[in-house]
């Protein structure tokens, strides 16, 4: 279960630039919210505040009703997906996916179960003993996702995950994210400047402009004008 409550959140950077004004949103359990808007409108700042990578200047952030406004990133039970595509070339797919758990000294049996479960979801079961260099681009992408999934975070955060990919990989990765959303029933916040991406992915879309939330609604509510 993972609900997020963003209450009257402002971000004022040290140089007095106010990037976000009075952001309010209730994210339901299992909901995929897409923040959309032009470059510089405050999407990424909002996401980074939720992740704990940027201080919240005013307002409150609750996760399942618990105030996490001041909580450090590592205590927030969230994963930023695709922030780092880099896989370890000398490790197998299995070792890459297990890495963050191994670092946390988790029980090898638990690690094994989690890696196999993630591999199944991501259709990587037959690739586990390969090295990243033996995989296709799409498979490498899925391994990168797998590294977040094994930690079973409550909330997944995506910052323009498709922007550096070619058209083919973009399509398949978008389908993977939707599949992941369905399979894990995970709460997700997804940032993009691309309206089409927002339309095809979102349960609800939050449109931002110059630091303000302009509109919130389902794709149908926002774009299906009679
Ligand atoms: P978006 O993700 O929608 O492109 P950002 O959240 O990155 O927008 O930026 C929102 C505004 O905040 C912009 O005016 C940007 O220049 C400013 N900004 C972003 N990061 C910083 C920072 N570290 N210091 C000062 N201003 C910043
Ligand atoms: P977590 O899943 O705990 O957020 P990552 O698995 O993404 O962490 O990475 C753990 C650490 O290893 C990070 O500091 C990251 O920058 C670093 N790292 C990840 N991949 C590589 C790589 N291919 N080469 C060097 N460092 C890497």
Automatic annotation (TrEMBL):
Alphabetical keyword list: ATP-binding, Nucleotide-binding, Transport
Keyword Transport set for record: yes
Gene Ontology biological process terms from the UniProt entry: carbohydrate transport
Domain ABC transporter: residue ranges: 4-226
GO CC list: ATP-binding cassette (ABC) transporter complex, substrate-binding subunit-containing
Keyword ATP-binding: yes
GO molecular function: ABC-type transporter activity; ATP binding; ATP hydrolysis activity
Coiled-coil ranges per UniProt: none
Name the record gives this protein: sn-glycerol-3-phosphate ABC transporter ATP-binding protein UgpC
Source organism of this protein record: Bullifex porci
Gene assigned in the entry: ugpC
Whole sequence portion shown: 1 to 226 of 357
